[in-house]
Amino acid sequence: MSTFMVAASTGRGRIALGVLGAVGALTAWFLVSANSGNAYFPPLSAVLEQAAEYWSTPEGLANIRASLTTLSAGLAIAVVVGVAAGLVIGQLPIVEKTVSPTLEFARAIPSTALIPFAMMLFGVSPEMKIFLIALGCVWPVLLSTADGARRLDSTMIASVRAFNITGLQRQWYVVLPAVLPRVLVGVRIAIPLSLILMVTSEMVGARTGLGFVITQAQATFQLLTMWSGILVLGILGFLMTFLYALAERRLLRWCDPRRSDTR
Question: Transmembrane segments in this chain: where (predicted)?
Fold first, then answer.
C-alpha cells in the first residue's frame, strides 16, 4: 500500500491514475448505456459514431474553431487584466481599500446575468462572448494575484529596496516571479469557468460554436448530435486542463524541486 501511495504521488503516477479514472468512467458509461432504448440517453457507441461523423466535417470543425477562438481571447484578456490589477491592488493598500467595495459588488454579479447588457453593447457578435468570458474569468486571477502580491516576503522587499530596484524592472523581475504560483492558481480556476461561460454565451443568439450546436440539436430533437457536442465539450475541457497542468509544472520547477523531471 505504501509503495502504491508513493508511486501515486509522483507526476507520472498522478497522470496514470487520471487516465485510469477516465477510462473507468467511459467504461461505466458504455456499459450502463449499452442496451438503452431511451432516446434521451442513447448508447455511448452511437454518440461516438455521431461525434466522429459530425465534428470531423468542415461545419463541425468551424464550430469548434469559433468556440476556441472566443474562449482564448476572453481568457487571455482576463489573465492580463487580472494580473495587472491584482499587482496594483495587492501592493498599494490605499488602492485596495478604495476599490474593495466596488470589486465585491461587481464580483457578486453572475456574468450570465449580464448577457442582455452585453448584447446591447456588442450585439450578437464574438465581442459579446469574449466580454462575458473575460468578465467572469478575471476575478479568480485578480484576487489570487492580489493575495500573492500582498504576501510578498519582507526580506525580499528589503533587498529590492537596498539595491534600488524600482519601476517596471522591480515588477517584472522581482514581484511577478514571486507571485507566479498564485497567478497560476487563479488561471487554473478560470479555465473551467471560461468553458462554462463560452457555452452559455453561445446558447443565446449565437450562430456558431459548441453551445449553438448543442442548443439547436436539442431544439430539433437531434439528440445524438446534442450528446456528441457535450462529449466534445468534455474532451476539450480535459485537454485544456491536462495541457495547463503540464505548462504549470514546467513554469514552477524553479520554486519546487519535486516538480523537476530529472531522474
Answer: 71-93, 105-124, 130-152, 173-199, 219-246
Q: Which of 5, 3, 8 is nearest to 18 (CA)?
A: 8
Phi, psi dihedrals of residue 55, rounded to the nearest 5°: -75, -5
Task: Read off the pLDDT of residues 223-233 as tens digits, 9 standing for 90 and up.
Answer: 999 999 999 99
pLDDT at 7: 47
Q: Are 121 and 128 in contact (CB under 8 A)?
A: yes
Residue 212's pLDDT is 93
Q: Please check whether residue 200 is in contact with residue 137, taking contact to mean a CB–CB distance below 8 angstroms.
A: no
- H/E stretch holding 136 reads helix 126-150
> What pLDDT score does 258 carry?
47
The domains of the chain, with CATH numbers, are 41-251 (1.10.3720.10)
Give the model confidence (pLDDT) of 158-211 as tens digits.
Answer: 887 887 777 778 888 888 888 999 999 999 999 999 999 999 999 887 788 999
- Under 8 Å between Cβ of 140 and 189: yes
The 3-state DSSP class for residue 47 equals helix
Residue numbers of the chain with a pLDDT score lower than 50? 4, 6-7, 257-263
| CA distances in angstroms from 76 to 24, 138, 184, listed in the order given | 34, 9, 13
**Integer Cα distance of 21 and 8 in angstroms:** 13
pTM summary value: 0.85
Q: What distance lies between CA 144 and its chain's CA centroid?
A: 14
Q: Which residues contact 215 (CB under 8 A, 6 or more apart)?
A: 202, 203
Please tell me the distance from the alpha carbon of residue 15 to that of residue 32, in angstroms, as a whole number: 26
Joined grid coordinates for residue 109: 454579479
